[in-house]
């Protein structure tokens, strides 16, 4: 019997400000990424980067930054700008997948004007800005659902800041909930492979397709696996099978996500989005593990 000597695929995730920005279970996103990698034999190493830690882009394949209260965002904003900014920009411009949730999302935009105190300068990755309407203004709180990539994303939001997009592309369109600002039905923002969103919950447990999207982006970038429909592909799926049929290569083997899709669609139902729930269930559960 031949022993499989191919080294396992590995990815390194940098978790920015794990102690300052970790609201509503944001850490759950890391647990999901790790588990979904593990189920495919991919090793995901997680490195925490706190205040004062430099960010050397070559050491990471993906980055995550969570959300927090205004008072926690102040020192993070300074550290992002003064310590991690150059490394983070280099990673982002080199198409590293980055997920930024709520407060982390706000600080990757131009600036955040909190309810009280001076503006927090952001990194300007997203051409967008955030204004808190004041301590008396109602917060944007509750379950939220958006359209994304022909499917849906669901989560929970709680933010006082309202984000307005300049030229930044939205992550999706609000189906139910507040999204960026409760006014223009946009939610989140995208720049290259950097995704900003207000969706906590945490986000990824109920959105396995988005988790896999991030993992796939990281694998493609690290192992230089690029597939184009017209030139046909010769590539390797993580479990060793090969595809030469010219379609876009799905890198990751599919997992049994019944529980995840039940949680996702029951939140859509709870929000009164019955048709989306049926469509999403049908779309994703046709892809049962073969
Ligand atoms: N403190 C920010 C706001 O209220 C972000 C909140 C969060 O990360 N949940 O808008």
Q: How would you sum up this structure, described in words?
A:
- It is a single chain.
- The protein contains six helices and 16 strands.
- A hairpin with a 5-residue loop joins strand 15 and strand 16.
- Helix 1 crosses helix 4 and helix 5 runs antiparallel to helix 6.
- The strands form four sheets. The protein has a six-stranded mixed sheet with strand order 2-1-3-4-14-13.
- The chain is globular.
- Glutamine binds next to helix 2 and strand 9.
Descriptors:
290 residues, alpha/beta, six-stranded mixed sheet, four-stranded mixed sheet, globular, binds glutamine
Gyration radius over CA: 19 Å
Our count of helices gives 6
* Order of strands across the main sheet: 2-1-3-4-14-13
Could you describe the largest sheet, including whether it forms a barrel? 6 strands, mixed
Beta-strand portion reads 25-35%
Strand segment tally = 16
**Overall average residue pLDDT:** 90
What sort of overall outline do the alpha carbons produce when their principal axes are compared? Answer: globular
Low-confidence stretches at least 5 residues in length (pLDDT < 50)?
A: 227-249
Bound small molecules, by name, code or SMILES, are:
glutamine
Helical proportion, percent range: 25-40%
Distance between the termini: 26 Å
Structure classification: alpha/beta
Order of helices and strands: EHEEHEHEEEEEEEEEEHEEHH
Quick structural overview:
The protein has 290 residues and is an alpha/beta fold. It has helices at 27-38, 70-93, 103-107, 208-223, 258-270, 274-285, and strands at 10-16, 43-49, 62-65, 98-101, 111-113, 120-121, 128-132, 140-148, 151-159, 161-165, 172-176, 186-187, 189-191, 194-197, 235-236, 242-243. Helix 1 crosses helix 4 (208-223).
